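User: Before I run my own analysis I want an independent prediction to cross-check against. Here's the chain; please return only the structure tokens and, at the end, one sentence I can use as a sanity check.
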Amino acid sequence: MTEEIDENEARLLQAMSIDDTPPAEFKASAGSALPAGEKPARVYDVVEALKTVSDPEIMINVYDLGLIYKIQQAENGDLNIEMTLTAPGCPVAGILPQQVADAAAGVKGVGKVEVKVVWEPAWTMDRLSEEAKAMLELF
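Assistant: Structure tokens:
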């Protein structure tokens, strides 16, 4: 008997496999279009929301870990976010991008959010913020 696996679970299982080949593409989305005339959120507020999402293995937020590569905001409040993971085999690959999308979409003035996982440039510990380095005692 064949069990159906939803798309996110399949991606999570792929990320956990021994094969370090990154998934071809992973996207997560959340939110909806802003009503006409609503003022778009400040990017600062989006960053603060992203800081509420932590990597469950390291317990440091995704922003200070340096996993957020780009936040692009359209005039209508929609966001395109590019992020990476600490490694292609990261076991939270199937859930972390959706948590990022949900956190950003929860900010007043944010419309539709699309989060895309990118693998270039590869994440390194050099991307850690000073706060994250202090938490990991890397000084």
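Sanity check: The first strand starts at residue 26 and ends at 30.
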